Amino acid sequence: MKKQHGNLYRATGTIGLITLLALTLWSQYKQKSNEHDHSDALQHGNTIASAPLKDTEKFIPSGALNSGIRIIDYDAYQYRFVPEPLVVYAGESVELRLKSNDTKHGVMIPEINFSAEMPLGKRKIATFKAPLKAGEYPIFCSIFCGSDHGDMRGKLIVLPSPEQKGEIQHEQAHSNN
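Above: the chain sequence. Below: its structure as tokens.
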């Protein structure tokens, strides 16, 4: 009789261990399938395509121009970027002095393949060349920063360069004749 109970306990224990193992594996699988890349703006329902720029006269370039480089202090807060929008001229060299003011953030401009982490409480320099095409380019936070992370976005406004502006005005003057 003792041997029968021993086999029963052993079988029950084995079934319990198999069940526990199956539940653990299932839980890990479900967790991985729910994960996503926070640096992928498309996973938050955003579009990454630039939009044409209409009223360029209302925008003033951000930061200051120093030796041909536009230098901008660019800060992150839950759930916004400052300044908003970020405004530069087409083709301009841009130096962002990045800083997070509350938690870990990242900044990403997918269309120009720019991405950088924003350190908490101190400045980090990141550079990029502004697109040659004037327009509005979406900016996203690339590091999970809280419940509204998916809504943390900004805009890069690329104004026509002074040279492009002159060409556009010249074309408009000739098309009106």
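Residues 2-34 form the longest helix (33 residues).
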